[in-house]
Hints:
alpha/beta; 299 residues; 3 domains; disordered N terminus; UspA domain-containing protein; Universal_stress_UspA; Rossmann fold; UspA
Amino acid sequence: MNTIIETEAPVDGPAASRRIVAAVDVSDYAASVAQYAGWAAQRVQAGLSLLHVVQPASTAHLADLSGNLALGVHEELLDKLVRLDEQRAELVQQQGQQTLSQLQQQLQSKGVQDCQIHQRNGLLVDVLLQHQDRIRLLVIGKRGEHADFAQGHLGSNLERVVRALERPVLVASRQWKPVNRFLVAFDGSPASRKAVEMICASPLLKNLECQLLMVGDTRRSHKEAMNWASAMLKQAGFEPLLLLKSGEPESLIAEQVQSQEIDLLVMGAYGHSRIRSLLLGSTTTSLLRSCAVPVLLLR
């Protein structure tokens, strides 16, 4: 299995030399993550790397055994647990390799020819941070293989990665759907303005239907921010539908996504005002859980 993101370009090379990276596991999200990554790779004409990270099993529970068992019994049990962990790791590795190979074949059959597969041991966030200078866009599932689907919990990897990685992150929904219409959640902050500039500069969303929603009142500063965003998007060839609404950002965004059949939600990864709270703390979970479409976080 290849090492992650092999490329002849230097680590600090231009963005054009960076690759789309899809963090896949063996959950129900794997196929969707790969398809959205393939879509992004074709849109921006970049190479694609499918990455599976075999994470170490937690051994924290072993600490509780030492005080309750005799030394010999504890050592024998520990040896058994170590052997079981080694067997588990080998099975996880084999299953991951099979998943990677299958996804690679599917993507190549759909025209994604520059599609590499990589498997590493460690923690996903550490592997990504080590190589983030070679990542153009990360695609990751909303929930991982160990998430509680019944409770709607997000994958722990997702929250760690979104906080740590200084690259755009596309959070894939469970089911793949072609992207024809996207919604920009805009608050006029430097981060959301940077997101608009990135949309305009990238081929990722070109020629797609664009809506821009700002949550707030009709004060002059909000209208000026909307006019700036509109001018930028129009100059880049978009024909944005502008929306200024009052209310709670989370509920308004979710309502707009559903009522307008939005295929992709786009947000700045950090902002201020109430939209910032959607990406910090517990409300991040609430937004991503309530939104049934993929979310593109730009920074």
